Amino acid sequence: MTETVLPAGLERRREDYRVITGASGFVDDLQPEAGRPTALYMAVVRSPYAHAEIKAINLEAARSAPGVIGAYSAEELVGGMRALDIFPLPGLKKPLRKPLAVGKARYVGDPVAVVVAESRYAATDARDLVEVEYGPLPAVADPEEALRPGAPVLYPEFEDNKAYLFELGGGDIEAAFKAADRVVRLRVVNQRLAPSSLEPRACMFDYNPATGEMLARVSSQAVFRVRDSLSAFLGIEKTKIRVINSDVGGGFGAKTTFVGEEIVAASLAYRLGRPVKWLEGRSENLQAQTQGRGQINYIEAAVKNDGRVLGLKVRTVADLGGFILGVSPTIATTTVRMLNGPYRIEALDTQVVGALNNKAPTSAYRGAGRPEAAYILERTIDRVAHELQLDPADVRRRNFLPADVFPFKALTGLQYDSGNYQAALEKVLELGDYAGWRERQKEQRQQKSSKLLGLGLSTYIEIAGGGGVRMPGVPQEAATVRIRRDGTILVQSGVASNGQGHFTAFAQVAAQIFNLPGDKIEVQMNDSALPAYGFGTFGSRTTPVAASAVHIAAEAAREKAFGLAARLLEASQSDLILEEGKVMVRGVPARAVELGELARMVEEEPDLIEREEPNPVNGAPIEGLAAWRDFLPSDATFPSGAHLAVVELDTDTGDVHVLKYVAIDDCGRVLNHYLADAQFHGGLAQGLGQALYEEVAYDENGQLLSGTLMDYTIPTAEQLPHFDCAAVETPSPTNPLGAKGAGEAGCTGGPPAIVNAVLDALAPLGIKYLDMPLRPEKIWSLVQAAKAGQLDQPEPQVPPFFKGKDSEGSDEKSGSFVFE
Question: Which of 175, 641, 564, 184 is nearest to 380 (CA)?
Answer without folding.
Answer: 184
